[in-house]
C-alpha cells in the first residue's frame, strides 16, 4: 500500500469492553470504565493496527470514558505524537428507560417485540427514563453537547447527529489527512457506517460491531469508502459480533 492510500484510510474502533458490557447492562450515556478485559483488548487492537502499518495521524473519540481510555491507549501504543480530539456526536445512543437496566430484565419487563424494536430497528425508540431512574444515576460525562442523559434516542436520531461529523471527516479523508481513527460506540459507529456505505434499514438492523476490533475502510479522492470495511482480524471479529447479536445486538 502506498502512502497516498494510507493517508486516505479510516479505522473505526469500538471501545474495549466496559464493566457494563461485561454484565450485559444497557449503558448509553452512563459514564462507566473499561473492564480488565477491555483494557487488554486495547493492546490487541494496537498490535493489529501496527502490523497493518496503520499509525493514525488523528484520533477522534467520543467523550465517554470507555472510549477516551481506548483512544488514549491506542495513541500511547501506536502514535504518541498524533492529535487526539473529542466530538460529542460520537457519544453512544441514549437508551432512555433502558439505561442502566440488565438486558435480560428488559426482555422480561417489556417483551421480545419491544426489545427488538427499540434495540435494532432504525426508528424504534424506548420511552424516556423516569424521574426515579434519573435520581438513581450518578452524573454523566462532560462534553456531551445538547445530549441529556435519559432523554432517549432512536438510531435514526443518532444518524442525524453523526451526519455533520461524517461530512467533516469525509473532507479530511479527501485531503489525505489520514490515517484517521474514530473510537466510539456500537450505535454511533453503526450510524456512521450507515452514512458512509448507504446501508438500508434492514442492513443496519443486522450490523453488530464488536469491541476493540479495528474495522478499516479505504477511501477515494472524495473521501468516500472504496468497498466495504475489512476487519484486521476477521475471524475473531465475526465470532465477537455473533456474541453481541446473541445478547440482543449492539
TrEMBL record:
Top-level division of the source organism's lineage: Bacteria
Cited InterPro entries: His_Pase_superF_clade-1 (IPR013078), His_PPase_superfam (IPR029033), PG/BPGM_mutase_AS (IPR001345), Phosphogly_mut1 (IPR005952)
A single GO BP term for this record reads: glycolytic process
Name of the top EC class for this enzyme: isomerase
Which PROSITE patterns does the record cross-reference, listed alphabetically? PG_MUTASE (PS00175)
The annotated site for Transition state stabilizer falls at 185
**Which keywords does this Swiss-Prot/TrEMBL entry list?**
Glycolysis, Isomerase
Q: Which GO terms describe its molecular function?
A: phosphoglycerate mutase activity
Its EC number(s): 5.4.2.11
Query: CDD domains, from UniProt?
Result: HP_PGM_like
Catalytic activity, reaction form: (2R)-2-phosphoglycerate = (2R)-3-phosphoglycerate
- Pathway entry: Carbohydrate degradation; glycolysis; pyruvate from D-glyceraldehyde 3-phosphate: step 3/5
PANTHER family referenced in this protein's UniProt entry, alphabetically: PHOSPHOGLYCERATE MUTASE
User: What is the role of the protein in this entry?
Assistant: Catalyzes the interconversion of 2-phosphoglycerate and 3-phosphoglycerate.
Q: What is this protein called?
A: 2,3-bisphosphoglycerate-dependent phosphoglycerate mutase
